[in-house]
Write a structure and sequence with these properties.
The complex is a heterodimer of chains A (349) and B (231).
Chain A: E1 3-12, E2 15-25, E3 30-34, H1 41-48, E4 56-61, E5 64-65, H2 71-77, E6 80-83, H3 94-103, H4 109-122, H5 138-150, E7 156-160, H6 168-185, E8 188-193, H7 196-202, E9 205-210, E10 213-219, H8 220-225, H9 230-235, E11 241-246, E12 251-253, E13 256-258, E14 266-271, E15 278-280, E16 289-302, E17 305-312, E18 315-322, H10 323-329, E19 336-342, E20 347-348
Helix pairs in contact in A: 3-4, 3-5, 4-5
Chain B: H1 2-16, H2 20-53, H3 59-68, H4 74-85, H5 100-124, H6 129-136, H7 141-151, H8 153-169, H9 172-178, H10 188-197, H11 201-229
Helix pairs in contact in B: 1-11, 2-5, 2-8, 3-5, 4-5, 4-9, 5-8, 5-9, 6-7, 8-11, 10-11
Chain lengths: 349, 231
């Protein structure tokens, strides 16, 4: 593991920001720290980047315990770079910004020159060396900040919500760039984001935070396809999450028996992806499907698809269907319909 | 009015012809104020950094005390320095009283709150981003402080110039611990005070014009620096 955080807690002005956080990041991973705004991601990244000290807990970097002060801490910090949420450039030229990290490390001038020019080329900023840092656009500023971090050739690059202030095109461009850099350089990336689609597009492993605690950690697939709590299910975009009692013949949720493929018993939750729910005007019974009769409560357009809310007794199920299916079935509010889904589509946790 | 205009004309002639008395006073004033400003900056910019970059109990209170002392009466500082360096004072054996060194000492103390307080403001103006960026790029504590100082250099220079402006135009310290000795500790302000008292209006106006010019140069430089900060 290149970074391990053990029992990290942090309190500021009487507020508990982080509570007993345990996290490990393996060498070469693209680790994505997810969670809603204000859940403690930035505080955790600042501790991981050795910018802040935790109130309690241990930080291990590069297989060594990092002390709270001293030369060893500085040496470890010099092997990683944290790109702040809103990066700022120093006064002066792009070149003077990019070279600064090398200068303070006492790198010889001719070497600095070569490295800076190479890294500017890597982020597509050839010829920008003499530009005043105050005249750059948002996207260029972000790339100079990235070049300034990469020129140091860090083992770990920590990025705090790098896409937050960018428009969709620049965001897409930055994510593509980060993915390329990760595969080209072998640097371990740790990136915080509140947008889980960022994680899906570039992450290899990750963790989800909530109220200063780690809710779930694992590979990106595990996080997105096997959420362990209702919060996680909701965070990764799962809808139709219901508390249920799991019995031998199925799970009872809202008074309905829901068939599933898990052998879970006792209390828990089940989730049915909206796209797995089929809405029809007639009841078509097959042995592998769950069937419920309900009434359409609403039909809402969400992007290119439509969300149909169907009230089935105590449960309100949401199904996603295309415009053509909606037109073909001629679905309207108040209509009685049958909804069905496979037992294998039911996610149990 | 005619008398005043005549005096003004004589004053201008004194300046244009390079009157040795007027210019020796102006030169001495500049030397004393510049020395005091440089010494004060050398000591109190690091003090401001120590206060700004460290967290301790009573920090806010200390900063508000420093800000209150911006307008400490010059005669009060003069009196305190006098008590310390007079023969009966704890530093009496240094024999500093009525020397240019005494004025420098008094002015160093007089402008210390201005240089400290405004430097703290300049450093605070950098927010958390600049120090965090420097640290995240691998700076040690001292490298980070120097980077933040470098980034806020125009505002820090403004603090120093404000200190110089206060030093060059003060009279309380110069008259109490300098003694207004002709050719030795006489400064622009003490010479003006004495000249007006003795009816030497033309010479006083000449000295006043030089003092005002110095103040204007400081003011213009400060506003130019502030303009370049807002670029």
């Amino acid at each position: 593991m290149i970074l391990e955080l053990e029992n990290i807690s942090q309190a500021k002005n009487g507020h508990q920001i982080l509570s007993d956080v345990n996290l490990s990041v393996s060498r070469g991973a693209f680790f994505v720290l997810m969670g809603p705004t204000g859940c403690g991601k930035t505080s955790l990244l600042r501790i991981a980047g050795l910018l802040d000290k935790p109130s309690s807990g241990r930080v291990m970097c590069f297989d060594r315990l990092i002390p709270l002060r001293g030369k060893e801490r500085l040496q470890a910090r010099r092997r990683m770079v944290t790109l702040l949420q809103r990066p700022v450039l120093f006064r002066g030229s792009v070149f003077s910004n990019v070279e600064w990290g090398l200068r303070i490390r006492g790198i010889p001038l001719n070497e600095i020159n070569t490295k800076v020019l190479r890294v500017l080329e890597l982020v597509d900023l050839e010829g920008y060396g003499d530009r005043d840092s105050g005249t750059l656009s948002g996207g260029e500023l972000q790339r100079v900040a990235l070049a300034r971090a990469l020129v140091i050739e860090p083992s770990v690059l920590i990025l705090d919500e790098p896409t937050t202030s960018l428009d969709p095109n620049l965001r897409f461009d930055l994510l593509r760039r980060l993915r390329d850099l990760h595969s080209k350089t072998g640097i371990t990336f740790i990136m915080a984001t509140h947008d889980f689609t960022d994680a899906l597009s570039i992450g290899t492993t990750g963790a989800v935070m909530r109220n200063g605690r780690i809710e779930q950690t694992g590979t990106i697939d595990e996080i997105f396809y096997s959420p362990k709590t209702p919060f996680m299910a909701s965070f990764v975009g799962m809808r139709n999450v219901f508390p249920a009692e799991f019995r031998e013949d199925g799970a009872v949720a809202g008074g309905h028996l829901v068939r599933h493929t898990s052998d879970k018993r006792g209390h828990g939750f089940l989730a049915i992806p909206p796209e797995a729910i089929v809405v029809s005007r007639k009841t078509t019974v097959t042995s592998e499907r769950n069937h419920f009769i309900g009434t359409i409560e609403s039909v809402e357009r969400t992007g290119s698809i439509f969300s149909i809310s169907v009230s089935c007794g105590n449960l309100i199920m949401i199904s996603s269907i295309t415009r053509s299916a909606l037109t073909e079935l001629d679905l309207t509010e108040g209509q009685e319909v049958c909804i069905s889904f496979k037992a294998s589509a039911v996610h149990v946790f | 009015m005619t008398q005043l205009l005549e005096a003004f004309q004589i004053a201008l002639n004194m300046i244009i012809s390079g009157d040795p008395v007027v210019f020796s006073i102006a030169f001495r004033t500049l030397m004393i104020s510049l020395t005091a400003t440089l010494v004060s900056a050398f000591i109190f910019i690091p003090v401001a950094c120590l206060i700004h970059f460290n967290q301790f109990r009573g920090k806010k209170f200390l900063v508000s005390i420093i800000q209150t002392l911006f307008s400490v009466p010059t005669v009060l500082v003069g009196m305190l320095v006098f008590l310390f360096i007079s023969r009966a004072g704890p530093l009496g054996n240094l024999g500093m009283l009525f020397t240019p060194g005494a004025i420098v000492l008094g002015e160093v103390l007089l402008i210390a709150p201005i240089i400290t307080g405004l430097t703290i403001s300049a450093l605070s103006g950098m927010g958390r981003e600049i120090p965090d960026t420097a640290l995240s790029l691998g700076a040690g504590q001292l490298q980070m402080v120097l980077k933040v100082l470098s980034e806020s250099r125009y505002m820090v220079l403004t603090a120093v110039l404000m200190g110089f402006g206060r030093a060059v135009s003060e009279i309380g310290v110069a008259i109490i611990v300098g003694g207004n000795i002709s050719g030795y500790t006489r400064t622009l302000t003490t010479a003006i005070a004495l000249g007006v008292g003795q009816g030497e209006i033309a010479a006083s106006i000449a000295l006043g014009i030089i003092l005002l010019s110095l103040a204007m140069i400081v003011s213009l430089t400060v506003s130019t620096l502030q303009h370049s900060v807002k670029r």
